[in-house]
Amino acid sequence: MSKIIDAVSLVLTCGDEIFAIQRQFFLKAFPGYWAFPGGKVEAQDEAFSLEHPLTKDIDHRLLGAAFREGQEELGIDFRSHVQSGTIRSISYLGLATTPDFNPYRFATYFFKIDFKNKIEFIVDENEARIAKWICAKDLLEEFNQGQILAVPPVVKVIETLGNHPEITKIDELNFNYDGNDFVPYIESIRGMPQLMPLSHTLPPATRTNAFIVGDIGCPRILIDPSPIDEEEYRKFKNTVAIFGADKILLTHHHPDHYERSNLLARELNIPIMLSQYTRERIVRIQSDYFDGIKTEILNEGDVVTQWLSRDVLVMNIPGHDEGQIAVYPSDLSWFLAGDLFQGIGTVVIGGEAGNMQKYFSTLERIIKLSPKVVFPSHGIGLGGTNILEKTLEHRRLREVQVYEHFKNGDSPEAMLTKIYADIRKDLWPYALENINKHLEKLKAEGKI
Description:
There is one protein chain. By secondary structure, the chain is of the alpha+beta class. The protein has 3 domains: 4-163, Alpha-Beta Complex (Nucleoside Triphosphate Pyrophosphohydrolase); 185-385, Metallo-beta-lactamase, Chain A (4-Layer Sandwich), CATH 3.60.15.10; 397-444. Helices cover 30% and strands 22% of the residues. The chain has 11 helices and 20 strands. Helix 3 crosses helix 4 (152-163), helix 9 packs across helix 11 and helix 10 (412-419) packs across helix 11. The chain is globular and about 70 Å long. It starts with a strand and ends with a helix.
């Protein structure tokens, strides 16, 4: 069981307005997410609290942490504002604990601090890309239009205060699901449920994301269902039933993206959508995989459904896998990038379907398109394209290393021990595949 760390979140309000921030795209934790100021509770935080009628019956260690974080991130002394009467009320809104399937867990205590007049804060630009006072109802509308990326407790606060700005207590901020009968799922962007079944994927990842997208009256597309075993399949089916599914879409032919998809297609009597290459590769692995199932071949530019009244289109994204496809809405509010990058671990470019030249080109293409949010197959969605830029930068660095070692006469196996000395040896076969694909790229470009 992961250790749970105490944290605080400051929900600052003034009448029906709320102060919200969008985290910088380059941050390691929750880049591009909309949130509230706050952070971890420290041992000496009680010293930052104070005795006052507004703070009666509030845990002073937690409130002290809120005041300290507020001062560090917003540049104001909350204690002086309490004493001067510029704060109308302080309320403990509720507690949200990170679910047990997440390796990093926090118990986050939300405090609502209501100001009599709006305060101009000095926001740390290293943390916040955008920081603004906004009517809670308008912020809720932005989320409902798919323009805000946020974790479930923050969404719950936005929804509650958007409908009831006067609320001082939210009874249930936790993300709850019955792990006995369902797989974990979240909705960090409106209309994009992300299901997270355990799968036969590569470590350190343990789950492959499955997404469901499609407006009412349009096909509900279930993307990459691949539960690891029969028990997980049972839980996965129960979870899919909450949202419904009219078609299955497979992004590519790797087993951790399609395992048991055919069983589900037969049970639900729905077709499977995929690229021609992916279909051919799966049939090579299991010739009867699609028996009794209608398949629909997808090509770049095809529209598969609608999301919040925007067309959802297909794009070919070769590199990691020749037949890999992505889906995205016409306004590029998000982009399902599959295995082009990993929220957990590193992408492998290997086998006959992997091509490092195409991988570089695909990353460059998506970075140029600049979607607002990119979703990987393993891990959470991330704001902006910073992760794609970092991934491309990393691969370019690896290529320089491979090139230099090649000039020195090193074999791929010798390069492996020097370049990847810091990774687990059971992952070396995958690292060696990356090295060989870099060599193929350098040779194709006439550099070696």
